[in-house]
Design a protein that fits this description.
The chain is globular, with a radius of gyration of 22 Å. The two termini are 38 Å apart. Strands 1, 3, 4, 5, 8, 9, 10, 11 and 12 form a 9-stranded mixed β-sheet that branches. Strands 2-13 form a two-stranded parallel sheet. It has a two-stranded antiparallel ribbon with strand order 6-7. By secondary structure, the protein is an alpha+beta fold. It has 7 helices and 13 strands. The chain has one domain.
Length: 325
C-alpha cells in the first residue's frame, strides 16, 4: 500500500526512546549486518532532527512531528486498563523463544508458528448486537512510521478503524442488528445521561443513499440503512476488545503483536482470542517503518477482525427491516 501523503521533514528526537534494550542481530540484506530495525529507526530519527536544526523553517512550518511522539501507553485509558487486566486461557509466555542469533525474519517466523492463531473456546448463536469495548482511533502518518507509537499495529492493520458500523450493521453476508461502543469514540461532548453510542438499522434514515457491497461474488448497490444515536444503557450481552503484546525483543526487531479478545459481558468469560504479529523495518523512508505495508502472520490468526467476531458471535437471522433501535 502506498503512503497516504507526502511526509514532511521530521524533528527532535524522542526523549526516552533510547531506553529500549539494544539487542544485536545478525540481520543481513537491506538493513545491513548487525543493524536491527530499532537501531535503524533511531538513526533515522537523528537524521530528521539534524535536518530540522540545520535549516531555517518557513513561518508556520512544522518540522519533525514524528519525533514528538511518545511510545504508546496501554494503560492511559479505562478501556486499555480493562483490556490488559483480562486473564485469558492461553497467555503468551514471557520467554518468547527469542535467541540472540535470530534475525528479525527468523524471530517473526518463530512467533507466527508458535504463538499466533485463533483460539476459540465457545461460540454463541443468534446474537443480535455486540459491544465494541475499545474502538481504535485512526492513526496518523507519523504514528504509522513510528516504531513505538502504536500499541497494536497488527490489530490496526486487520481491524475496523473507519466506519465499523458498515462491517457490523449494514446488511451484507450476515450482520448484526446493532453495534454499541463508548460514547467517547468519536470524541464528542458527553451528554448528561447517555454514555454509549448505538448504530442500528433504519431503512428510512437515508432513503437516497446507496451502499456498494458484494452479493454472490458481484458488486451491487443496496440501500444504506445504518442510523446512529446515543443511549444510557447497553443492550449487548457480548463484546470484544484488544490489546498489544509488549516484550523486550519484539519492537527491537521491528515486530509488534496484538490480541483480540471476545467476551461474555455478564460473566466475563473469554470466548475466543485471536493473536498475531506484524513485521516492519525495511521501508525506504528515514525511519524504516510503515506499518500499513508490514508483513502480518499469514495463517493462522490473519482473518479480518469482523470476520473473526462473526464466527464466534454468530449474528441472528435478519428480520423485516424497520427502525430497530
Amino acid at each position: 500500500m502506498k503512503m497516504r501523503s507526502d511526509q514532511i521533514v521530521r524533528g527532535i528526537i524522542l526523549v526516552g526512546l533510547l531506553l529500549v534494550p539494544m539487542i544485536v542481530s545478525s540481520e543481513a540484506g537491506i538493513l545491513g549486518k548487525e543493524e536491527t530495525p530499532a537501531e535503524r529507526f533511531r538513526k533515522g530519527i537523528e537524521k530528521i532532527r539534524q535536518a530540522c536544526e540545520n535549516r531555517k523553517l518557513d513561518p508556520g512550518e512544522v518540522c519533525g512531528e514524528v519525533s514528538k511522539l511518545k511510545p504508546a501507553d496501554p494503560l492511559a485509558t479505562e478501556e486499555g486498563r480493562f483490556a490488559h487486566s483480562i486473564k485469558i486461557p492461553n497467555p503468551v509466555s514471557e520467554d518468547s523463544g527469542y535467541k540472540p542469533e535470530m534475525t528479525s525474519q527468523e524471530y517473526f517466523d518463530h512467533l507466527c508458528k508458535t504463538e499466533a492463531g485463533e483460539f476459540i473456546y465457545r461460540t454463541v448463536e443468534n446474537v443480535e448486537g455486540i459491544y465494541m469495548m475499545r474502538p481504535r482511533k485512526e492513526a496518523t502518518d507519523e504514528e504509522l512510521e513510528h516504531l513505538y507509537a502504536l500499541e497494536d499495529p497488527y490489530g490496526y492493520v486487520l481491524g475496523e478503524v473507519d466506519l465499523p458500523q458498515d462491517s457490523y450493521v449494514q446488511p451484507a453476508m450476515g450482520t448484526y442488528k446493532f453495534l454499541e461502543m463508548p460514547l467517547t469514540f468519536p470524541r464528542v461532548q458527553k451528554p448528561s445521561i447517555d454514555s454509549h453510542r448505538r448504530y442500528y438499522r433504519d431503512e428510512n434514515v437515508r432513503p437516497n443513499r446507496r451502499y456498494q457491497t458484494a452479493v454472490n461474488g458481484q458488486f451491487v448497490f443496496v440501500p444504506y440503512i445504518v442510523a446512529e444515536g446515543t443511549v444510557a444503557a447497553l443492550k449487548s450481552r457480548y463484546g470484544y476488545t484488544w490489546r498489544g503484546i509488549a516484550r523486550p525483543h519484539d519492537r527491537e526487531l521491528g515486530i509488534a503483536g496484538g490480541e483480540l479478545i471476545v467476551l461474555d459481558l455478564q460473566t466475563k468469560e473469554v470466548l475466543a482470542v485471536r493473536r498475531g504479529f506484524i513485521r516492519s523495518g525495511w521501508m525506504k523512508n528515514l525511519t524504516g517503518v510503515w506499518w500499513l505495508t508490514g508483513r502480518a502472520c499469514r495463517t493462522p490468526g490473519a482473518k479480518r477482525e469482523h470476520l473473526f467476531i462473526k464466527e464466534i458471535l454468530k449474528p441472528a437471522p435478519s428480520t423485516t427491516l424497520g427502525q430497530e433501535k
